[in-house]
From TrEMBL:
Keywords: Alkaloid metabolism, Metal-binding, Methyltransferase, S-adenosyl-L-methionine, Transferase. It comes from the Eukaryota. Coiled coil: none annotated. Pfam families: Methyltransf_3. SUPFAM superfamilies: S-adenosyl-L-methionine-dependent methyltransferases (SSF53335). GO terms for biological process: alkaloid metabolic process; methylation. The keyword S-adenosyl-L-methionine applies. Its cofactor is Mg(2+). Its EC number is 2.1.1.336. It catalyses: norbelladine + S-adenosyl-L-methionine = 4'-O-methylnorbelladine + S-adenosyl-L-homocysteine + H(+). This is norbelladine O-methyltransferase. GO terms for molecular function: metal ion binding; O-methyltransferase activity; S-adenosylmethionine-dependent methyltransferase activity. Belongs to the class I-like SAM-binding methyltransferase superfamily. Cation-dependent O-methyltransferase family.
Length: 239
């Protein structure tokens, strides 16, 4: 199997595909913004082997509701890919909101940029092309106490999740949320390493297991791990 080909993998952990389709067709897809639909289709057409890296629409829907309930205005996204979660966030936030978006690849971000522009939300986004750790370190030194973020979404290098976490706890306000994607990693965290999958699946599994163990013991946060997509851990900063 091609190590970069994700097209034969399934992100949804629901055991019944019929149930997953019911959820999508009844609750998710009828409510999905047309430009989000178009962005999903464009990603699949342009880079089919990696299209699975996009946040699934049901998770985008959940993030949108969370942001609206929080009345969030300042958010940070670590890992953008083609921008599905970024566009979902920008659509959910008020006109004067600001999103700091960090990714190592502007090339991928530019696949989604026409849809972001068409939605009229580009002015909300400050895209930073960079490795996440140095970009976060820079923000830690620059952001004032009254400029702390309300919300952070992380979908980047899984082996660096804990490094991101330590920095985001300095950047997200007390009471704010930090959400980590892929924390059930295609369901592999509940089983021994598999032999019939690309090598990176098992190596990332180990990184996710270590992160899950550490974050569960972190007294600086409250958390809830949600079985949506292939796992979303929602953390609320308490100190």
């Amino acid at each position: 199997m091609d190590g970069n080909d994700l097209s034969n993998l399934e992100k949804c952990l629901l055991q019944s595909e019929a149930l997953h389709q019911y959820i999508l067709e009844t609750n998710v897809l009828p409510k999905e913004h047309e430009l989000l639909k178009k962005l999903r289709a464009e990603t699949k057409a342009r880079i089919p082997k990696r299209a699975l890296m996009n946040v699934p629409p049901e998770e985008g829907q959940l993030l949108s509701i969370i942001l609206k309930v929080m009345n969030a205005k300042r958010t940070i996204e670590v890992g953008v890919f083609t921008g599905y979660s970024l566009l979902a966030t920008a659509l959910a936030l008020p006109e004067d909101a600001k999103i700091t978006a960090i990714d190592i690849s502007r090339e991928c971000y530019e696949i989604g940029l026409p849809f972001i522009k068409e939605a009229g939300v580009e002015h909300k986004i400050d895209f930073i092309e960079s490795d996440a750790v140095p970009a976060l370190d820079k923000l830690v030194h620059e952001v004032r106490e009254d400029e702390l973020f309300d919300f952070a979404f992380v979908d980047a290098e899984k082996s660096s999740y804990w490094e991101y976490h330590e920095r985001l706890l300095k950047l997200v306000r007390v009471g704010g949320l930090i959400c980590y994607d892929n924390t059930l990693w295609l369901g592999t965290v509940a089983h021994p390493p598999q032999q019939d999958v690309p090598e990176f699946i098992n190596s990332v599994r180990e990184a996710v297991l270590k992160f899950n163990e550490k974050i569960a013991a972190d007294t600086r946060i409250e958390l809830s791990q949600v079985c949506i997509g292939d796992g979303l851990t929602i953390c609320r900063r308490v100190v």
